[in-house]
Amino acid sequence: MQALQRSAHRLSRRGFLSASLAVGGGLLLDASFTLPADAQGGQVMPPLQVGAYVKIAPDGAVTITAKNTECGQGIKTMLPMLIAEELDVAWEDVRVVQADLNTDLYFAQRAGGSTATPMNWLPMRQVGAAGRAMLITAAAGTWLVPEAECTTAASQVRHMPTGRVLTYGQLAEKAATVAAPRPETMRLKDPSTFRIIGKPIRNVDSAAVVTGQPIFGIDVEVPGMKYAVFHKCPVFAGACKSANLDEIKRLPGVRDAFILEGGKDFGSLVSGVAIIGDSWWQANRARRFLKVEWDEGATGAMSSEGFARQTTALAAGAPQHSLRKDGDANAALAGAARLVEATYSYPFIAHAPLEPQNTTAAWKDGKVEIWAPTQNPEPGRQRVAQTLGVALGDITVHLMRCGGGFGRRLSNDYMVEAAAVARRAGMPVKLLWTREDDMQHDFYRPGGAHVLKAGLDTSGKLVAWKNHFISYGANGQFAAAADLGVNEFPARLISNFDVGYSLIPFGMPTGPLRAPRSNALAFAFQSFIDEVATTSRQDPLAFQLSILGDPKLYGEVGRGGFDTGRMRGVLTAVAQRAGWGQRRLPARTGMGIAQWFSHQGYFAAVVEVSVDDDGKVTPLKVWAVGDVGSQIINPSGAVHQVQGAVLDGLAQALGQAITFENGRTKQTNFGNFPLMRMADAPPVDVHFLITDNPPTGLGEPALPPIPPALCNAVFAATGKRIRSLPIDPAILKG
Amino acid sequence: MAFSIKVNGRQRTVEAEADTPLLWVLRDELNMKGAKFGCGATFCGACTVHLDGAPVRSCSIPISGVGARAVTTIEGIGASEVGKRVQEAWMEVDVMQCGYCQAGQIMSATALLTRTPKPTEAQITQAMNGNLCRCATYARIRAAIRKAAGLPAEAAGV
Q1: Residue A615 burial class via C-beta count within 10 angstroms: exposed 0-12, middle 13-18, buried 19 and up
Q2: Is A672 within 8 Å of chain B by CB?
Q3: Which structural domains are found in chain B, ordered by start?
Q4: Using a CB-CB distance cutoff of 8 angstroms, which residues of chain B are in contact with residue A639?
Q5: How far B114 CA lies from chain A's nearest CA (Å)?
Q6: Residue A6 at interface with chain B, using a CB cutoff of 8 Å
Q7: Cα angle vertex A254, ends A250, A256, to 5°?
Q8: What residue ranges of chain A have pLDDT lower than 50?
Q9: Is A212's CB within 8 Å of B94's CB?
Q10: First CA to last CA distance, chain A
Q11: How far is A495 from chain B (nearest CA, A)?
């Protein structure tokens, strides 16, 4: 506040206001430029407007806009770091603000697929570099010297021959009137000169969080707002036929209650009963008295037991569909010196972000303003538009900090619900789910099973691989995130390779969970590879390296290309750090190793585990090594992401499963869907290999190797192979 | 019904039904959004506040059960010397990822250090085990508690 008053004072003393004076004080570096295609991170971007990201106040305060939505992955800190580095400001001068949804200005604003780093590494730096060039132009113009004689550091332009200095604050007014430089003339810094990138930078919302400021979606308050719950059928896609609305409306604090018909699309509005209350507690308490007659539909007949029976039946037969065939797997298996067969399966799991789903919506004159914690705001806006028949331009979306995402908030069902409820209620409404709503109406990580066969030649080399993947879907189409890519490891590395799949009809919502597909496939394939290695008396690490072969790039960097050399690098490094094969471990203690490539990141992990006589599995330590390219942008955030993903993977394997009965989810809360707690969290050693590759994202790729590394360690400790998750202690008793 | 409760040193009168949990009185009646709703069933600890200095799950304490006990929330914890040190340590160690659980974590940590200024690792685990962090920032929570306690930093973590 003081800074703003100071800047206002200075401006008025000078007696004019620039046309580009920004709301709240400070000058926009108001110019736009178009990035060359090779700097666009594989996307087609609109022109970058410097002023959409950078504002400099005459007192030197720099405001940088963070364009992407924040859900704990640290992007609100990291993207502004890229701008600040090239702008050459002192980080202490920077204040970061969150952008609203505005795809014209900011293009992709989602948090998903670990894409923000590869997509923004160059464009955000270019924004900073453009701003810096404009400030240099302004200084050179003031001094009437060549721009080439000027340099910058820590929010100042310096004229090298004379040592004269102007601060960015002093230059802001003039710089705001300068045209953006042409991108081909802008020079990005040599990474060896970075002052901000590569340094551990504290989360920009730290102070707000530790003092309890209202920055999350659930904290939103707007004038005249009431509180809402939305009660959906416990059976997925069940429809509400009637409800005791009159009785509900008479309950204390209840303003209104009504049925919204909805449709069958889980990502939009499905049928349910909305209750509006003066307080959320009153609205939610009214649900205890709610009596609804549901039409449960076909899903009511579905259950996990039935899925298990169908899996067994399908596994006994041939795949319904073929996915990939190289060479002749059947012949190679028939002629193999050794054949290893096993079936691996894994359950459905929930995302369970700690902040339950919520959105606040306020309608006025046919337009709606939305405050949502979402990972995927633009598709949310489109869903609202389609479902409620509103023009896209009449929907404003404010991106609220998300209390975790993990992929759950890529689906915007709760955003559509809030908009629909608020419109019908005729008042601004904050819709908030309970934990039980969240657990029972998730877009689950799909379960699945893999019937695997491997053939080895006389030298122990893997020469044949056959996989019958049992997944969910219909008519040959996989359910969301229940698929398997044709190039997924170990495709391309084994000459006789045959993958097919069969599908179980399914009525529940599925979707991406942190490292989608990979979080399940890595367990099946990396556990099986370990099983093949130990069955044939080969060291698991040596066997992994023999499958990878000599360093070779399959495909193209940045487009899913897989570089066996980079994977060899992380495997070798993690083995060294963990002392793989070097340490003598006590009885019922063991180490397991696994690797996985996902979201352009290469990760390998070693887990050390002990198993007690009751079968309880205790991870003692985890070593993780990653290769995500040439630069770790924020080491503090990067280590955070890896440690979090590692513990997430352990928690999944140790205890998480969603099961269905009569079309309903059985689990309700953290009592029967356990998250990792401090007492169970082992130390996690994190190391990055720096390689000459474009920087890529870290929200996801550290997770997939963890469940198999854990289970391989359990085998090393006990001789018992875990072929189904979560780990069942009963089979591990000493 | 009207209830008079003392929150962060200030006497407040709120109109609420007797079974309304303290969490919802704080959040929706007093507009103090620091205590968070995570599970509503004492599993997660995101709603942790202090009653007379002891950490409690405000989602499961009815307003009628608060009585004369002093309520301290994350908004007021910085007024105590220990609370301020914990907040500072949380920032210095850069504990948070999403940040949603951290108010509850800080409340539990402050209660621990007020009672036990130099806790052992086991005491830290015991005091903090009821607070879930879905992002799993446990190594840094531990490191921040050690820092606030003036104990040597651990090698693990940051």
Answers
A1: middle
A2: no
A3: 2-72 (3.10.20.30), 78-148 (1.10.150.120)
A4: 158
A5: 17
A6: no
A7: 90
A8: 1-21
A9: no
A10: 65
A11: 40
CA distances from A80 to A52, A89, A491, A693 (A): 12, 11, 39, 22
- Decide if B139 and A227 are in contact by the 8 Å CB cutoff: no
Task: Provide the angle, in degrees to the nearest 10, between the axes of the packed helices A413-425 and A377-388.
Answer: 40
Cis bond upstream, residue A509 (ω within 30): no
Angle of helix A540-548 relative to helix A564-578, nearest 10 degrees, comes to 170
Q: Does B128 contact A74 at a Cβ distance shorter than 8 Å?
A: no
Provide the residue range defining the domain that includes A343: 304-348+445-732
Contact predicate B106/A210, CB 8 Å: yes
Asked if A623 reaches chain B (Cβ–Cβ under 8 Å), the answer is no
Q: Which of B8, B9, B37 is nearest to B24 (CA)?
A: B37
| Same domain (yes/no): A607, A674 | yes
- CA B8 to CA A675: how far, in whole Å? 32
**ipTM higher than 0.90?**
yes
Q: Residues of B numbered 25-44 whose beta carbons fall under 8 angstroms of chain A's beta carbons: which are they?
A: 27-29, 31-41, 43-44
Q: Are A632 and A76 in contact (CB under 8 A)?
A: no
Q: What is the pLDDT of residue A184?
A: 77
> Residue A450 contacts by C-beta under 8 Å, 6 or more apart in sequence?
A343, A344, A345, A467, A468, A469, A470, A521, A524, A525, A528
CB-based contact B29 A279, cutoff 8 Å: yes
Domain membership of residue A439 (yes or no) is no
Let me know if residue A207 belongs to a domain.
no
8 Å CB contact of A205 and B99: yes
Q: How far apart are the C-alpha atoms of B149 and B109, rounded to whole Å?
A: 10
Of B24, B96, B128, the CB nearest to A279: B24
Partner residue facing B73 (CB), from A212, A218, A641: A212
Which residues of A are less than 8 Å from B121 in CB distance?
none
Residue A705 maps to which CATH number? Answer: 3.30.365.10
* Residue among A201, A211, A227 nearest A284 (CA): A227
What are the percentages of helix, strand and coil residues in chain B, rounded to 5? Answer: 40, 15, 45
A235: its two tokens: 């059976």
Identify whether A566 is part of a domain. Answer: yes
- Of A559, A550, A512, which is closest to residue A703 (Cα–Cα)? A512
Cα–Cα dist A138/A118, whole Å: 32
Interface test with B, best of A199, A206, A210, A514 (most B CBs within 10 A): A210
Inspect the interface and report whether the beta carbons of A209 and B103 lie closer than 8 Å.
Answer: yes
In sequence order, what are the residues at sequence separation of 6 or more whose Cβ sits closer than 8 angstroms to the Cβ of residue A113?
A512, A599, A697, A700
Token pair 């919302």 is found at: A205
Buried b (16+ CB within 10 A) or exposed e, A371-396: bbbbbbbbbbbebbbebbebeeebbe
Domain total in chain A? 3
What is the end-to-end Cα distance of chain B in Å, rounded? 49
Which candidate in A77, A209, A647, A654 is best for mutational testing of the B interface (most B CBs within 10 A)? A209
Contact A280 B28 (CB under 8 A): yes
Q: Does B62 touch chain A (CB under 8 A)?
A: no
**Residue A675, min C-alpha distance to chain B (Å):** 7
What part of A 533-562 touches B (C-beta under 8 Å)? none
A395-399 and A367-372 strand pairing: parallel
Q: What is the pLDDT of residue A196?
A: 98
Query: Can you list the residues of chain B whose pLDDT is less than 70?
Result: 154-158
